[in-house]
Design a protein that fits this description.
It is a single chain. By secondary structure, this protein is an all-beta fold. It has no helices and 9 strands. A 3-stranded antiparallel sheet has the order 5-6-9, with no helix packed on it. It has a two-stranded antiparallel sheet with strand order 1-4. A hairpin with a 2-residue loop joins strand 7 and strand 8. The radius of gyration is 15 Å and the shape is elongated.
């Protein structure tokens, strides 16, 4: 496992869109989920290190970065 997260945009009329790599990665990814509001979550087996010690696990929510519209 590389720790990189990839995605694509499905298109009903043209098939699968271009595969893209997100600008972040996470180690020890064990699950991906979605809540009723369609927000995406990643669950890791090990969390970030704090004061030199690793935590037991972490849950991350993906938040889309919106492009600004010039005006």
């Amino acid at each position: 496992c590389t720790g990189r997260v990839y995605g694509f945009r499905p298109r009903a009329d043209r098939g699968v869109g271009k595969q893209r790599s997100f600008r972040f990665g996470t180690r020890y990814l064990i699950s991906i989920g979605q809540d009723n509001s369609r927000r995406i979550y990643l669950v890791t087996e090990r969390g970030p290190r704090h004061k030199g010690k690793g935590s037991l696990g972490a849950v991350y929510r993906l938040v889309p970065r919106r492009k600004e519209i010039g005006g």
